[in-house]
């Protein structure tokens, strides 16, 4: 899948996904100027990949000198729209949803959890850090009231598609789903990122087996 900037250039999603890594690398570098070699090393990519990704958005560096770290940080934050103050709603206040709210509050200045909703009467009304868990029935109302642009789905698989549909219908265009189920969205303006932790661990188990087989040969 590809995205378009304000002009006509097509920007691969993989490039967009690497930008936060460059943003973190700029913080870790701790210098006024930083080269693509340093950025690549800290972010885990080659210098060529760094230069190619950044070139989609303009000429930010000087050959042989590198990038002004503060300026590049501001540019990447602007590209990712982090300078606008992104607000998200977490759907599901179980263990995973609770952990996501607390982790985001502690680690992120860029994406703020503005609401948490659940269908379980036992958790509705519970205080979760600075938020009160609201009933799922208020989802659309909360999205509009609090100018929420991102949805985070942390519900059982049987309810995930219905939640996604409601988010799309109310205008949310960026959705992160932790539900262990493939979700369907037909609107090309909506981007859904699905993370199935069980599938990730099962895939990683291959490399455990490879290591064991190598050691026994």
TrEMBL record:
<keyword id="KW-0238">DNA-binding</keyword>
<keyword id="KW-0520">NAD</keyword>
<keyword id="KW-0963">Cytoplasm</keyword>
<dbReference type="GO" id="GO:0045892">
    <property type="term" value="P:negative regulation of DNA-templated transcription"/>
</dbReference>
<dbReference type="InterPro" id="IPR022876">
    <property type="entry name" value="Tscrpt_rep_Rex"/>
</dbReference>
<keyword id="KW-0678">Repressor</keyword>
<feature type="domain" description="CoA-binding">
    <location>
        <begin position="85"/>
        <end position="182"/>
    </location>
</feature>
<dbReference type="InterPro" id="IPR036390">
    <property type="entry name" value="WH_DNA-bd_sf"/>
</dbReference>
<dbReference type="InterPro" id="IPR036291">
    <property type="entry name" value="NAD(P)-bd_dom_sf"/>
</dbReference>
<dbReference type="GO" id="GO:0005737">
    <property type="term" value="C:cytoplasm"/>
</dbReference>
<comment type="subunit">
    <text>Homodimer.</text>
</comment>
<dbReference type="Pfam" id="PF02629">
    <property type="entry name" value="CoA_binding"/>
</dbReference>
<dbReference type="GO" id="GO:0051775">
    <property type="term" value="P:response to redox state"/>
</dbReference>
<dbReference type="InterPro" id="IPR009718">
    <property type="entry name" value="Rex_DNA-bd_C_dom"/>
</dbReference>
<dbReference type="InterPro" id="IPR003781">
    <property type="entry name" value="CoA-bd"/>
</dbReference>
<comment type="function">
    <text>Modulates transcription in response to changes in cellular NADH/NAD(+) redox state.</text>
</comment>
<keyword id="KW-0804">Transcription</keyword>
<dbReference type="InterPro" id="IPR036388">
    <property type="entry name" value="WH-like_DNA-bd_sf"/>
</dbReference>
<comment type="similarity">
    <text>Belongs to the transcriptional regulatory Rex family.</text>
</comment>
<dbReference type="GO" id="GO:0003677">
    <property type="term" value="F:DNA binding"/>
</dbReference>
<keyword id="KW-0805">Transcription regulation</keyword>
<protein>
    <recommendedName>
        <fullName>Redox-sensing transcriptional repressor Rex</fullName>
    </recommendedName>
</protein>
<feature type="binding site">
    <location>
        <begin position="92"/>
        <end position="97"/>
    </location>
    <ligand>
        <name>NAD(+)</name>
    </ligand>
</feature>
<dbReference type="GO" id="GO:0003700">
    <property type="term" value="F:DNA-binding transcription factor activity"/>
</dbReference>
<dbReference type="Pfam" id="PF06971">
    <property type="entry name" value="Put_DNA-bind_N"/>
</dbReference>
